[in-house]
Design brief:
By secondary structure, this protein is mostly beta strands. 10% of the residues lie in helices and 29% in strands. Among the domains are: 180 residues, no CATH class; 146 residues, no CATH class. Strands 1, 2, 27, 29, 30, 32 and 33 form a seven-stranded antiparallel sheet that branches. Strands 6, 9, 14, 16 and 19 form a five-stranded mixed sheet that branches. It has a four-stranded antiparallel sheet with strand order 10-20-21-22, covered by helices on one side.
Length: 566
């Protein structure tokens, strides 16, 4: 796979990497004085550093750097087409209406596939479809005495201090930064929901138009609110531009081996009825309060990601939690609901989170904090508004939890049925062609297979045939681009001869000059339990202009032969 490098800009301009199957690009000239600088390399940004903030002033004076590109404060009109956030409460069922937040969630039996959903992006980089609007962290019995209902454990609100754009991380965890841009409608009340990126996001700067006196608060479930602090009532919506951040581990982290209930003391008290039924269902999956946390979360996530949507809901026995849990039918909100009830019954701090287009969960891990877990739940598609000019945030680590086929086809993975994102980013993950079905191969997809190896076996016994099995490596069929000083997002799958993914295989990604045999290692990753791998790799900003080959290889192991794609 040849990678073309070309000069795109004057001075410290970033060169572009093109990744079709075979491309070579030469140097292109620009006018020295009047060329528009579209991207500019920012020095001293480490390879593992996704974002940083430049500047000493608040609001428009600060800038976010993502993948080596400067993201300036949002334009004045960027939020004008999005519905304003309002004090009007949601109804506590299905997805939220845009701009509304519910104080509770009661499950329903509408488990069929939903139509195309509208999602309004509030952040840059975009985090579609994971804008936090409603977060619920506790369970109570409904008036029927049977149904678990999700609520906020403590609705009292505490002020969130504005930290300043240069505020260092409060702990050792790296944090990534985002611009927020929303409209606030105070006509229905003086306290309005504020969307967030993560439960422990900080507010680094704020700027309002028109200038308005306000403060930001949050409750025990980390729902954020904006409150008016002066007597005047704004004549219309107030635009709030704010700089915020989130721990990088929130978007994906390794799950350690620990007792499943090691953080049970942080949960709100649970009704004995809910706890008993949650543990009863967990036992059907082989999970108990004495299980290993890593095993419990992998098992529960795999089970829920395998669900299907159906116009015929599970039989009604009078217990909607157990009906949904055992029926394996439902969309994102049903999956997230069952996850939280089951997890809390086991002693795992888990939250139900949703917005107008999607529902997911947050789980607190020892020594990590909260981590987002998406469970899928397909709709016909998702129309994203306000993100066509923004990069899409890519987690530093790939999803380490099971990713069955039903889950990968969900719109929440951005692989299917999503419109409105910036094209070069929306298709980064691509679609996969089964290695056993080359007839269905999409144009431009890279498929490579290791053949029988007559050399010595892995044990090093000379003269003996290598008995290891062949591997197939499939790279994403999408064409993407990246700038020098930026990052290359790459996805693929390693499969055996039957087409099944092979887990825990090392994958190396390198660049090789066309005229040289040595390679520049960009990074190393490992396949997940389904054989998929994903890498976000920094391209050196000082890489010389020329033609390069992108080399992706796995050295195999004691059971599988090496395989190389280049």
């Amino acid at each position: 796979m040849l990678v073309g490098m070309r000069r795109a800009l004057r001075r410290l301009g970033c060169a572009g990497l093109a990744l079709p199957l075979c491309v070579g690009l030469g140097a292109a000239r620009t006018h020295a004085d009047d060329a528009q600088v579209l991207h500019e390399y920012v020095p001293n940004v480490e390879a593992g550093e996704a974002t940083a903030v430049l500047g000493q002033t608040q609001g428009a004076g600060a800038s976010v750097v993502y993948d080596g590109k400067v993201l300036s404060a949002p334009e004045e009109a960027s939020a004008q087409d999005s519905p304003a956030f309002s004090a009007t409460p949601g109804d506590g069922q299905a997805q939220e209406l845009p701009g509304q937040r519910s104080a509770s969630f009661r499950p329903d039996r509408l488990t069929e596939l939903e139509g195309t959903l509208d999602y309004y992006e509030a952040f840059n980089p975009a985090i579609a479809p994971f804008k936090r609007v409603t977060s619920l962290d506790a369970l109570k019995l409904d008036s029927d005495g049977v149904t678990p209902v999700l609520v906020v454990s403590d609705a009292r609100r505490h002020e969130v201090k504005v930290q300043g754009p240069d505020a260092p991380s409060p702990d050792a965890r790296p944090r990534d930064r985002f611009w927020g841009d929303v409209l606030l409608d105070f006509s229905a009340g003086r306290s309005v929901p504020l969307p967030s990126v993560a439960p422990d996001s900080r507010i680094l700067s704020v700027q309002t138009t028109p200038q308005t006196h306000l403060r930001i608060v949050h409750d025990a479930a980390d729902n954020f609110f904006v409150q008016l602090t002066a007597a005047q009532q704004p004549d219309g919506p107030v635009r709030l531009v704010f700089l915020t951040d989130a721990p990088r581990a929130y978007f994906g982290s390794a799950i350690a081996h620990a007792p499943v209930g090691s953080l049970a003391g942080e949960l709100a008290p649970l009704s004995p009825s809910i706890a008993a039924r949650g543990r009863q269902f967990a036992a059907q999956l082989g999970i108990s309060p004495h299980s290993d946390l890593h095993f419990a979360l992998h098992t529960l996530t795999r089970y829920l990601r395998e669900w299907s949507e159906s116009a015929t809901p599970p039989p009604d026995t009078g217990d909607i939690y157990l009906d949904l849990a055992r029926g394996k039918k439902g969309v994102c909100r049903h999956r997230a609901y069952v996850f939280v009830v089951t997890a809390q019954a086991l002693g795992i701090p888990a939250r139900f989170v949703q917005n107008e287009a999607h529902s997911w969960v947050e789980v607190k891990l020892p020594d990590v904090g909260f981590m987002r877990i998406d469970l899928g739940g397909a709709a016909h598609g998702m129309q994203t508004h306000g993100a066509s000019d923004r990069p899409v945030y890519t987690p530093a680590l790939p999803d380490s939890l099971p990713r069955p086929d039903a889950y990968r086809e969900s719109y929440s993975t951005l692989e299917h049925g999503v419109t409105g994102l910036r094209p070069s980013e929306a298709d980064v993950q691509g679609r996969w062609v089964s290695p056993s079905d080359s007839a269905g191969q999409a144009p431009g997809q890279a498929l490579f297979m290791s053949g029988p190896n007559p050399r010595a076996s892995a044990s090093g016994d000379a003269g003996k045939p290598d008995a290891r099995k062949p591997l197939t490596i499939a790279l994403s069929d999408r064409t993407t681009s990246v700038l020098r000083g930026g990052k290359l997002a790459l996805t693929g799958k390693l499969s055996d001869a039957t087409g099944h993914g092979v887990p825990q295989l090392r994958v190396e990604v390198s660049l090789a000059a066309k005229t040289r045999k040595d390679r520049m290692l960009l990074g190393v990753t490992v396949t997940d339990e389904e054989g998929y791998f994903r890498a976000s790799l920094g391209i050196p900003p000082d890489l010389a202009v020329g033609d390069y080959k992108l080399v992706v290889l796995s050295p195999g192991n004691t059971h599988y032969l090496p395989v190389i794609a280049q």
